[in-house]
Amino acid sequence: MTENNWRELLERSHQALATTVAAIPDDGWKLPTPCAEWNVTQVVQHAVGDQIAYTSALTGGPGPGWNPFAPSGTLDVDAADLVRQTLSESAAAWAGVDDDAADVPTPLPQGPMPAWLAAGACALDAAVHAWDLAVATGSASPLTDEMAAGLLRVAEEIVEPLRSYGAYGPVVDGGGSPVDTLLRYLGRRPEWTV
């Protein structure tokens, strides 16, 4: 990712999450995921909560009404609609950010970041959880090598301090494609299956 194409990466990552959630089958909501302690519903709740947190940081509006790191596993609304609405609000918030803004608020412990990095962090969250949900439900991976290369640049800037919070696991050894490299850096196993 270059510092000039962060909007495209964010849009593609949001689309990956929306498309993946819309494809979850009726019997897929309780399936295990690469996030070992969470099922599909919980990962959706976490991903939505994270996107709301980014929107809140940008707009000063309310944050999620639940702890994204302690998802209940119960949704009383249509998940695809919830994700679409949340991502629409996120996109609107990001539309108000100048391309070259130096101090964009984030919900991360690191605080404000340059626009490309803040948006990249938001994109990373959406894209990696889209992958989690896709592999958990047997869908095709929404991550492309091009997306993964841009997201890896972001991950290398922000992930290390977040590992101590449990947001990412330790790096998994191994090589592979740009997607595999990104996933391994984030503590995931690209070969994971249900």
UniProtKB/TrEMBL annotation:
All copies of the Mycothiol-dependent maleylpyruvate isomerase metal-binding domain together span 11-134
Which InterPro entries does the record cross-reference, listed alphabetically?
Answer: CHP03086, DinB/YfiT-like, Maleyloyr_isom, MDMPI_metal-binding
A Pfam family reported for this protein in Swiss-Prot or TrEMBL: MDMPI_N
| NCBIfam families in the cross-refs | maleylpyruvate isomerase family mycothiol-dependent enzyme, TIGR03086 family metal-binding protein
What is the name of this protein? Uncharacterized protein (TIGR03086 family)
